[in-house]
Structures are given as C-alpha cells and as structure tokens.
Design goal:
By secondary structure, the protein is of the alpha/beta class. It has a domain at 50-263: Glycosidases (TIM Barrel). 42% of the residues lie in helices and 10% in strands. The strands form three sheets. Strands 10-7-4-3-2-13-12-11 form an eight-stranded parallel beta sheet. It has a four-stranded antiparallel beta sheet with strand order 6-5-8-9, with no helix packed on it. A two-stranded antiparallel ribbon has the order 1-14. Helix 2 (57-66) links the parallel strand 2 (31-35) and strand 3 (72-74).
C-alpha cells in the first residue's frame, strides 16, 4: 500500500539524476545512501523464490536503478539466520546467509548447471508470497536448503577443476571460522535441532570450551568423530559458504562499475552458532541488554553474550584471542564493504549494560555498566571509572553518572574502538569516516567522550525529535555536519505513518512549531504554516523530509519505505515470526511513485534562507524542470 505523500516517477533519467546530485552537493551532502536489507530486494520477472537478494538479477537491476542517484546502499546484517528466527540481527558473525544465494545462477554455465531449472522454477512457482511484497521465510529456508543439497551432489558428480581449486582455496583462507561453523551444522544434524543449549551431550555443547588437558584430548577425539561421520554435511556447508562468497564478490564488482558502494551492518548480537564456538571468550553468567527506561520498566533482556574483558587484551596491550576474533570480523566486513560498516548499538562496544543470566537487567537484580561500576561487588574488577568519578546521587543506569574522566580513562573506554574497529578499517584501506555508529537514544558520558575523542560519526534520526526540548540533538537546527542523518531506520514506521499519528495533536503542534522555526525563517505567514502542518499529514511528512536535507549533516540516508512511499513497517521491535522482517520492495517498483525528491531538495535550499536560495537560483530552476 502506498501513501498520498507528494510523488514523482521513481525512474529518473540521467539528466534528472545529475540535477539532483548537483542539489545534494549544493546542500553540502557528501553521501546519499539508500537503506534496504538484503531480503527486501525485488526479484526479476519470474524469479521470485520467496526471498530477496542483491546478488540476483533483480538485485543487480536495482543497483542500475540506484546508480547516479545514490552513493551507497546500506544492507542489513549478512549472517546465517536460524530456521525459527528470521531476524537478521541474530545471524552469524562470519557465515553468510544462504538465502542470499542467487539460485538462478546455479542453473547456468558459470556453475555448470549444478541446479536443475526444474528445481529452480518449482521453487518460484510454489512461492506462497509470489504476488505480494513479502518474503516467505520458512518456505525459502527449507527450499534453499534442498536446492543447495542438489547443487552440492551435482558439483561432486561432475567436478569442475577451476571451481574445485577455488573451493579449496576458499576453505583454506577461511578455515579460522568455517571449520567451527560447519561442525556446528553437523552437530545440529546429530541432535536434530540447531539450538545447542538443547543438545543432550554436554561434551558436544563444550567442544571448544575444555576445562582441562584431559577434556581437550577427549573433545578433539569427538570432533574427529563428528567430522568423519558427517563429512558430507560439513562439506555441503562449506560449499554453500563458497557460493555465497563468490556471488558476493561478483556483486561487489558489479556495484563498483556502477559507482555504488555497500555499507555493512554489524549487529551487537552473537548467534547461537557463534556463542557455542567462542563461549570460552565470553563472560560467564552475564548477558548484554539495556537498563529500564520510559519504554521498558524492566529493561531489555537481550540474552546476548558479553565479551570477557580478560580475554580481549594481553598484558602488553596486544590483542588476546577475543580481541583478535573481533578484529578478524571487522577486517572481513571492511574488506567486503568499501562503503563502510554500520555498528549497531555502539554503546555495547564502549560502555555496555550487563545483567546476570536468568535475571532481569535491573540494578536491584545485580545489573550494571561493565566498565563503569567501581562500587559493584562483581563488576568492579573491570571498572575504568573510579568511585570519585561518579555522581553517587544518580543510579547506575543514568547516562550522566560518570561525571569526570581523564584522557587516559577515555582512551581505555575507547580501546576496542581504536585497536579493533579503527585498526581494522585502516588495514583495509579505509578511514574513520567508514564507521557509522548507531548511537540513538541516551548515551553515557564515556560513550559520548569516546566518540568525540576518536571523531566517530553517529546517527541523527529526525523522527526521534523531542519537540519540547529546544536543544534536542535530532532537531534540524541542532544537527551538525559530521554525522549520518535520516528520518527513520528499519525499526521505525515510515514518515507518512508517523505524520498521520501526529496531526491534530499537541505534540504534532510542537513539531510543527519547530519545523517552522527551522525551515520557514523568512515566511510571513508562519502561523498559517503551523496550522497546515498540524492539519495536513501529507504536508507534515513532506516537511520532515525537507528537514532531513536542509540540516547540516554531510551524510544522509533514507529507508526504502520512506523513499518509495510504502505504507508498511519492516520491523516491529519485540515481535517475531515470518510476518516480521518480511517487507520487500515490490518487484514492479519502477511503476511506483517515489517521494518528489526534486521538490524536497528545492524546498531544502529555500529553507536555508533567501540569500542561500538566490545564490543557487539556477539549481532551483533545474529542479523545477524535473
């Protein structure tokens, strides 16, 4: 369903694209990025398998569509998801998602037809969501597994020397993660499920977490036993990862030719597979979450493992096994995504809130900041802040509790950022601008100081503006240059839905008042504009988009629901099942009417004031011609 926000044809010719790019430059925008997770990509005609991928012809066609208009496409997390959970934010940290494979390509010459066309078109023809803009997660998960089994059998039966050699090299170069991930797949078959806490064997649960020399010897024998028993399943898993990697490389080169960069998304979570493989590196008995707040009186108990500070660095400051694991992850992400990496919940890397497993993330149940709790009986050993640095009148969950920090302490809080994230980016030829920090919500003082010290760019979400706070950081007038601005993320309703809920309300009036102050400085009829903004949802939504481009932010992102006027929600936090994370860009997206970007940019230039508008009169005239 599309909304009634003022639109234009989404298919722009090269002249129109050049005019829009000129307007973006005029407004000081260095990057204009489109946000769409991999599964949401449209399919080419007669190629809808139930799940989207940028690797398919439909994905490549979208790259062509975006070329010349956008600088980058920000994808979601790319890890392998669970059979029972479609959320990309619980996927693996190294293994790729098999649902991102272009099955059609496996039917062609490049792969020697290892997948039959009959199998492929059977998947397409039986897709239960073929005529909707929704994924069919459970269906695709099952069918892709069957398809890759067929492809693997045919690959073995009809070996290709070139592909076999590439496969051997891939396995060798990626053995540091691939061996463990594929072994987990074998054990999932052994135990009949892919959730290791439910496995009946304590040995299998702890194969990479031996507590003695004897256990290490015993576990090594068990690993060898499983590898022999399930050698084919293990090789199938590795082959599937090889296919994903090869197709990702191909897409990356295709995008490069069309001047589109990819921005990756690093979730704060670790998958079940990773938790099992690296459990010796996690802090035993503790989980990562969020403290109680206005939205959640008991806090958010995510259940994600926490990296053990004692396994992150050696005494000489070099990386220990935990630190090296994270650095390998970031190096892989920066290497594969030259547009950069979006880091979800940057607080979790700098000043994480942790709670005891089995408890609620509340102070009275033992929760606290891992590095900011010198008064905590169990967490004090990890504290960077000292007692004298705290405002003890504030509870441990308050962002301003750490009131003083030395330069040495700030550096200690930022050690992971400096030694792992920034170092990984530099080693892959990128700078700090390739790091996009999801810092939405309240930030503790240590996080704010680290971001300032290392000049990290955070995100400003205009939909989050608190209208009765003049200095709110998400308000247009307060957004600085060095950040990434957007109206909404994958967790938000589209801007038109937001506008529908804000008209005819006191809060909507406050938003309208701010927008007029920030964007209509030279208007003589300010009161009339406020009235229209509080009464006309279409005008309010459009003005929020004008605000996005009129603000000073050098980098702007827009989620696909906002750009294409799709009146639906991609993710509703706290919900699960196939219906969530399922929204796609319709296959016929070129027939949709997108937001009227030309008009929005014109209004953004006018919002900068008469002098600025007069200086850029020619740009405005060209925008009027689109």
């Amino acid at each position: 369903m599309t909304c009634t926000l003022e639109k234009q044809s989404c298919v722009l010719d090269e002249k129109a694209k050049k005019t829009i790019r000129k307007a973006l430059k005029t407004l000081g925008k260095k990057n204009f990025a489109f946000i769409m997770h991999n599964g949401s990509f449209p399919s080419a005609e007669n190629e809808n398998t139930g799940f989207g991928s940028i690797n398919t012809e439909g994905g490549h066609e979208f790259i062509r569509f975006a070329s010349g208009l956008f600088d980058a496409i920000q994808l979601g997390p790319a890890g392998k998801t669970k059979s029972c959970d479609s959320s990309p934010y619980t996927g693996t940290i190294f293994s790729g998602n098999p649902l991102f494979i272009d099955l059609k390509e496996l039917t062609g010459k490049e792969w020697n037809g290892i997948l039959s066309e009959t199998t492929y078109y059977d998947i397409v023809s039986n897709n239960p969501n073929a005529n909707t803009n929704k994924t069919a997660y459970s269906y695709a998960y099952k069918k892709y597994g069957e398809a890759m089994q067929e492809a693997w059998n045919n690959f073995k039966a009809n070996p290709d020397k070139k592909l076999e050699k590439e496969f051997r090299v891939f396995k060798s170069e990626n053995s540091f993660w691939l061996d463990k991930d594929s072994l987990y797949e074998a054990l999932s078959v052994e135990h009949g499920n892919d959730y290791w806490p439910m496995w009946s064997s304590e040995t299998d649960k702890n194969l990479f977490n031996p507590q003695s020399i004897e256990q290490k010897i015993e576990f090594a024998k068990r690993i060898e036993e499983i590898e022999n028993k399930y050698s084919d399943e293990i090789e199938l898993y590795k082959f599937t990862q090889f296919v994903i990697a090869k197709q990702n490389d191909k897409t990356r080169e295709f995008a490069k030719k069309h001047d589109i960069k990819m921005i990756a998304d690093r979730q704060v979570a670790f998958s079940d597979r990773d938790t099992w493989a690296y459990q010796s590196l996690f802090l035993k008995g503790w989980c990562l979450g969020c403290p109680p707040d206005y939205f959640s009186k008991d806090g958010q108990a995510w259940g994600f493992p926490v990296m053990d500070p004692d396994r992150m660095y050696n005494a000489d400051g070099s990386l220990d096994e935990g630190g090296q694991l994270l650095k390998n992850l970031y190096k892989k992400m920066f290497k594969e995504n030259p547009g950069g990496v979006r880091i979800d919940h940057i607080v979790g890397l700098i000043d994480p809130w942790v709670y005891k497993a089995g408890k609620k993330p509340k102070i009275e149940e033992g929760a606290g900041r891992l590095y900011s709790s010198p008064e905590h009986s169990e967490l004090s050993k990890y504290a960077i802040a000292k007692i004298e640095d705290l405002d003890l009148e504030l509870s441990a969950d308050k962002e301003k509790r750490v009131k003083t920090l030395t330069k040495e302490q700030i550096k200690a809080y930022g050690r992971l950022i400096e030694k792992i994230v920034i170092a990984a980016a530099k080693e892959e030829g990128l700078d700090k601008d390739a790091i996009v920090c999801e810092d939405l919500g309240t930030l503790t003082n240590p996080v704010a100081e680290v971001m300032k010290a290392f000049e990290l760019q955070g995100m400003k979400l205009t939909q989050f503006t608190v209208p009765d706070e003049p200095k709110d950081p998400y308000r247009c007038a307060n957004i600085g240059k060095k950040c990434w601005a957007m109206v909404g993320t994958h967790d938000n309703e589209p801007v038109k839905m937001w506008a529908d809920k804000n008209i005819h309300s006191h809060e909507g009036y406050l938003h309208a008042k701010n927008l007029v102050e920030d964007l209509f400085k030279d208007a003589e009829n300010k009161d009339d504009i406020i009235v229209k903004l509080t009464d006309d949802a279409q005008f309010l939504a459009q003005t929020k988009l004008v605000e996005l481009f009129a603000c000073d932010a050098e980098n702007v992102q827009i989620f696909f629901t906002d750009y294409f006027n799709i009146y639906d929600v991609y993710n509703r936090p706290g919900t699960s099942g196939d219906a969530n994370w399922s929204l796609r860009l319709p296959d016929n997206y070129k027939k949709l009417a997108s937001i009227n970007l030309a008009k929005i940019l014109k209004l953004a230039i006018l919002a900068r004031g008469k002098e600025f508008a007069d200086k850029n009169k020619k740009v405005i005239e060209k925008l009027d011609e689109i």
